[in-house]
Amino acid sequence: MSRVGIVDQSTSKFTKDTLLSVEELACEPCKEILERHKNTDLKIDSVFLSTTADVQYGSTIVSEYLGLKPRISQRLDNLCNSGSNAIVSAYSMIKSGLCKNALVVGADIKQTKGSQLVWDISRGSFTLPVYWAALFAKVHMRRYGTTEEQMASVTVKNRKNAYLNRNALFRKKISVKDVMDSKKLVEPLKLLDCSYVCNGASAILLSNEADSKMYTDFPVWIEGIGSSVEAASFSNVSSDLSSIHSTKSASDMAYSMTNITPKQIDVAELHDAFTIMEIMAYEDLGFCKKGDGGKFVSQNDISINPRGGLLGTGHPLGATGVAQAVEISEQLKGLAGNRQIKDCKMGLVHNMSAAGSSSLVLIISKD
Amino acid sequence: MSRVGIVDQSTSKFTKDTLLSVEELACEPCKEILERHKNTDLKIDSVFLSTTADVQYGSTIVSEYLGLKPRISQRLDNLCNSGSNAIVSAYSMIKSGLCKNALVVGADIKQTKGSQLVWDISRGSFTLPVYWAALFAKVHMRRYGTTEEQMASVTVKNRKNAYLNRNALFRKKISVKDVMDSKKLVEPLKLLDCSYVCNGASAILLSNEADSKMYTDFPVWIEGIGSSVEAASFSNVSSDLSSIHSTKSASDMAYSMTNITPKQIDVAELHDAFTIMEIMAYEDLGFCKKGDGGKFVSQNDISINPRGGLLGTGHPLGATGVAQAVEISEQLKGLAGNRQIKDCKMGLVHNMSAAGSSSLVLIISKD
């Protein structure tokens, strides 16, 4: 079967405040992509909108705003894991031959209901994600000796990367001490251990192999897809809080689809909603041994979260998975400007939802 | 490429009142399907939830309720056209090889926000669908001489069919006079020209060709898919209100994918949200000439809306497209009981959203 390529990509500036609706926000990166192809015969076949916001027929509204009349238009969600799910739907729509191409846009607003998990009454009043993140952190510290300073250094690294990203929300470099001194939320997590739910939108244009080569000189290819759904409620996610099981399953699936190993990954976007989640992702994606995640923060072999991750860039829930794919695409194409990583050929996206209730891993290759 | 089959199907009883949540409603038909396969090694790969209700990560909640841990779980919506969109996503997920099978469930509640079109301010205060339906009816009457009695006879036919359907909401046979005498809503439409937004859920299990043959003795196959998105706002849908343009485009696409003609269709589920929409669908799907829809109501060559359509069965927005596919599947398999149509081999599903803003057509075959 023909491959599916990323033809183009764009992201808006992530913000704390906006006067735009979700649908208007969604148009920003799409307009940039469509503008670049306006003198071609590109005709958009399908539009996928990923958002956790309370919208009705949002994908069709976005299509109308953009002046598009696609064959297919769908809005979809699966919490923080919505963006990469939209990419997978678009991928399969192209792979199956139903569409030649797909515009995938993720967009969300700070006020989205997706930021609290009210359905899961087993959480009691602990509906905010920081509560489960604190449990993961406690278990990792106890079992593997991971330290609060190691967690803090995840934020320090990602904020340093975000300093170079003009679309990031947090562009101020900070120190481990800054994180350690920030407001204590839930022991052992501090304010700066947490990503910030914000406004933002990101989009990518996918196409079949022939069209990808026609519409860009630098296509990159979605080679591996792995996905796993554990549960909706925290109490059913896992009895073992030292690992993100859905991430482990999803990455195993993605690696085996491509026959590549973690060692071959040059650049990765990991779902660092909280510092401990990036540390656990190192381990569950096979970048280091189980328990070594704390020490792995300081490594330099793989570029991790070069745009600044969720911690530095901000976390517009439905946009995040797409924003991650935008970054990997730009890095592999050599379009990342002042944060360009040299000689990167193989990239990985790791997107997940609350407490690892589901995870999705994409492997994207230059050749 | 291997075909995609409908392995199994089920629908709940559609109701005016329910104490269940959307996610609980969604489980009803799924449980029936899973129960029938409990002694096999069937493992559900993906779960798609179609709903217009305001839910968060609903597909993952439904998966947990059902005890499933699929690879992929997504909730999606595109208004009244959500159900068939979920089927198309599932189809492409299987066709692309990412999944072996997919459980597609549509569910909605009467109170869903999807029943009013508040985003489209060009409608002014005319947010209820009956306003655009009345415009379509007026134009058709004026241009083609379609009568109020012909429209009324669509409800009479579909209610007669619903009389035989134990899951239908309206099981009382009525006369043309009953429709004509019912409460006038918007000239020329009366209460009984309109479908009723209700509670309900329907599910189908799709699988690849090999597994379809393994898990049922009666697989039927999704052979044709056509889809078209016109616009989100009524003022942009079409300047010509005598036709549903998106339905015409979608059916052209579906027919050309299968190389079959409208004459070969034995049984069809049409989106009769209002009586005039069924009459226009006859024409735009090529069952009769443009303008002849009014007279076509009394034909007997094609069985149309044998379960009772939206007018007789009720219209749970996000479930309707799936409910239509359930009926076609049961008819082609010979499982429709007291409403079984003899010798039917080729079926069609026509699902659309507000004012024809988008349409989707599926062609399903027995062989």
If strands are numbered along the chain, what order do they take across the biggest sheet of chain A?
A: 3-2-4-7-1-8-12-11-9-10
Assembly level: homodimer
Cα Rg of chain A = 19 Å
Number of domains of chain A: 2
Mean pLDDT across all amino acids of chain A: 96
Protein chains sharing the most extensive interface: A-B, 51 and 51 residues
Number of helices, where a helix is a run of at least 4 consecutive DSSP H or I residues of chain A: 13
Poorly predicted tracts of residues of chain A: none
CATH topology of the largest domain in chain A: Peroxisomal Thiolase, Chain A, domain 1
- Percent helix of chain A, as a range, is 25-40%
Which sheet architecture does the biggest sheet of chain A show? 10 strands, mixed
Number of strands of chain A: 12
CATH top level of the largest domain in chain A is: Alpha Beta
Order of helices and strands of chain A: EHEHEHEHHHEEEHEHHEHHEHHEE
Q: Beta fraction of the residues of chain A?
A: 15-25%
Distance between the termini of chain A: 16 Å
- Helix-and-strand structural type of chain A: alpha/beta
